[in-house]
Amino acid sequence: MTLARRGALAFGLATSVAVLSPLKAFATLSAPASPRGSGGGVARPAPRRAYLHNLHTGDTLDEVYFADGRYVPGALAAAMGVLRDWRNGEEHTIDPGLFDLLHNLRTKTEASAPFQIISGYRSPATNAKMHAESHEVAAKSQHTFGKALDIRIEGVDLARLHQAALSLNAGGVGYYPQSDFVHVDVGPVRQWAGT
């Protein structure tokens, strides 16, 4: 083997290691934690369930969306369908943090009924139409990014749900008592009242 060929092979090997090392590091970071056992490993977080009922379509979701330290892709894909823009059927990726927010709300309110979805994802076209009709709809609503829901829970007083959402300090919270829903999102922390 010539020196030039050896040099090329060495360069190729070094390049491969440099390229693969970040991928390996990412795989290590995203790997689920081992359960705590006799080896003293870290315990895995408990599974989390999404329980939703879209009032406009009748669609429901009752699935574990987080298990073994990871979000469950199939459950997140199913949630996209349930939370689609019911006016035109358009779907959009939903921020997984929104489901964590709902999980924490369920824990705070000790609710057993599903979250009733008044509004999930809104396509830009739908949002623009709603914004033109009402000053209460933001021109760049978090709904258009898959980061917001308008919700209520049967059996949970709306004021209590509102206070629970505020206590999480996890994003935007809008209170609409006359329309009978609470807006929650995983955007910047802020609050407001509507009708």
Q: How are the SSEs ordered, and which strands pair?
A:
Blueprint lengths: L2 H28 L17 E7 L5 E8 L2 E2 L1 H10 L13 H14 L5 E5 L4 H10 L14 E6 L4 H11 L3 E5 L4 E5 L4 E4 L2
Concise description?
This protein has 195 residues and is of the alpha+beta class.
For the record, the CATH architecture of the largest domain stands as 2-Layer Sandwich
CATH fold field value of the largest domain: Muramoyl-pentapeptide Carboxypeptidase, domain 2
- N-to-C SSE string, H for helix and E for strand: HEEEHHEHEHEEE
What's the count of strands?
8
| Helix fraction by DSSP (H/I, runs of at least 4) | 25-40%
Counted up, domains total 2
Low-confidence stretches: 1-38
Percent in strands: 15-25%
Task: Give the averaged pLDDT, no decimals.
Answer: 84
Coarse structural class: alpha+beta
Task: Strand order, main sheet: write it out.
Answer: 3-2-1-4-5-7-6-8
The general outline is: globular
| Main beta sheet strand tally, sense and closure | 8 strands, mixed
The tally of helices reads 5
- Measure the end-to-end span: 80 Å
Radius of gyration: 22 Å
**What is the class of the largest domain in the CATH system?**
Alpha Beta
